[in-house]
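can u pls check wat happens w/ IPE
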Amino acid sequence: MSEDSPRLVQLRRNGAVPRHIAIIMDGNGRWAAERGLPRSAGHQAGMTSVRETVEACLQSGVEVLTLFAFSQENWQRPPAEIDALMALLEEYIAREAAELRQQGVAVRMLGALDRLTPSAREAVDHIEALTAGGRALALNICLSYGSRAELVRAARSLAQRVQAGELQPSAIDEAALSAELYTAPWPDPDLLIRTSGEMRLSNFLLWQLAYAEFYVTPVLWPDFGRDDLFAAVLDFQNRDRRFGRVST
Ligand code: IPE
Ligand code: IPE
Ligand code: MG
């Protein structure tokens, strides 16, 4: 592997890195438009950024990386763009699965996966099975994901358990609801990164981001690399996380 960047050296010296980073990978279409290319070329180029970001997390000791790859609302895009994105998903899995396994990355896909094509579904099952048990990094890819839909699904599941007599309404607390979310196995994100300068959540992890630190960079996703991830972590290390209390 190449020599450690000065930012990586610095963030290691600083100490605590975020355990869980979530990223809204945005700006692929604008990246392509700037070059007179079709939007799909931006999505294609964004795959390199995913690889770099995973490597940066492995290098810096981040435990969980959750990427927003395709939202529930993105199903409203033109069919040709959706087809290109689904083809890219399969390409990503075919190209990266073996190496991710070797790196100790456990991949999970979170969202309404029943809307995927059968072949995309098969690819998802394949990479999850192949990489299960990886201990270096948990890589969650949110696909066909909407946070409000996730919360509705959780509420429905709790209601069914009450109706079945397994659960008392009074036993429904924050932990019980968290346990019904796709993200149940992992701690909440400490840091949310959004590329391309947009200052909104776009229906991403509304519950889980309650106390995350936000970092918005103007960099478009296909231009985002290892050093941009390190810059975000360095910024995070200077935040004063008060969680409603006063600073110590
Ligand atoms: C992010 O890039 C990728 C997806 C949402 C699938 P966009 O496709 O949203 O790119 P912009 O925001 O139009 O530049
Ligand atoms: C959010 O980006 C979804 C993903 C990055 C997958 P969008 O580009 O879809 O969000 P809006 O439409 O700008 O809010
Ligand atoms: Mg966008």
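The radius of gyration is 19 Å.
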